[in-house]
Amino acid sequence: xxxxxxxxxxxxxxxxxxxxxxxxxxxxxxxxxxxxxxxxxxxxxxxxxxxxxxxxxxxxxxxxxxxxxxxxxxxxxxxxxxxxxxxxxxxxxxxxxxxxxxxxxxxxxxxxxxxxxxxxxxxxxxxxxxxxxxxxxxxxxxxxxxxxxxxxxxxxxxxxxxxxxxxxxxxxxxxxxxxxxxxxxxxxxxxxxxxxxxxxxxxxxxxxxxxxxxxxxxxxxxxxxxxxxxxxxxxxxxxxxxxxxxxxxxxxxxxxxxxxxxxxxxxxxxxxxxxxxxxxxxxxxxxxxxxxxxxxxxxxxxxxxxxxxxxxxxxxxxxxxxxxxxxxxxxxxxxxxxxxxxxxxxxxxxxxxxxxxxxxxxxxxxxxx
Length: 369
Known about the structure:
With 369 residues, the chain is of the alpha+beta class. 23% of the residues lie in helices and 35% in strands. The chain starts with a strand and ends with a strand.
């Protein structure tokens, strides 16, 4: 269990962050310069906060009010730096065993051998970092961090310097290691795919502050605000006016249409009538109505015209102007994503006007902020 509430002031920047985590993988997500790595450095003891408190597994690592600042070596935290920071003059065996200097020689050798075997590095013990592949370097860095049996693993953008194909491969390998070792982990990243593949929980940073912390299943479906949605690259963020709102549904006036959005009966969002609100529709949740079949009854039926498209390989993103909307003058109103097979089967390259339906559950009204 981790509890962190800290403040750190630097020239032109203030970190003021608070969040908690259990025995899980937590991703600190946000743009570069948002305060993620600084948070990790404070957690590791490499930077001393100006105020606040940090507790890991019941052990107080930092408490400004009580004058507690446990030195980094005594915090039982395994740290993997950007670029891995392996010692170039040490072998794989020596790198992995570096953090075990306080143990007896026999125990150190046994633990090093165990970690090397578990990480699939057997046979590479005498090699130097320059003689290893990117994946092998990553596993050596993880081995060095895990050898001392840390209470928590800290990963500071470990894949940021890699090109896309290698990054995907090593992300898969990293996910396997984290699952196998079952060590609570805090990961710093500005890569959305990385955050969702590796993490159970995501803490969103913006300009030194936490703007949302939630399980990853909740982050994309229920962003805390329009700002958070934009940080996550959510498309189809639209604006409309509230016609009425109840615990079951919110009706919105948008581009000459009235759309019905599902509301949460347990935690309803009840904006006042006439209020302007932001909402979003995931592009993959918009459905085209087939012309060769009877049109089913559906809420939120619109007619749109394809005014642009992008081939994504396995899918197409259609940019559509909605009848009654503003597509002619200010760009498309909606993006719709369809599998390539559907694009080809429906002949969308030739047939450009379609009816659309959007399920109420696919329209998410965003709180202000």
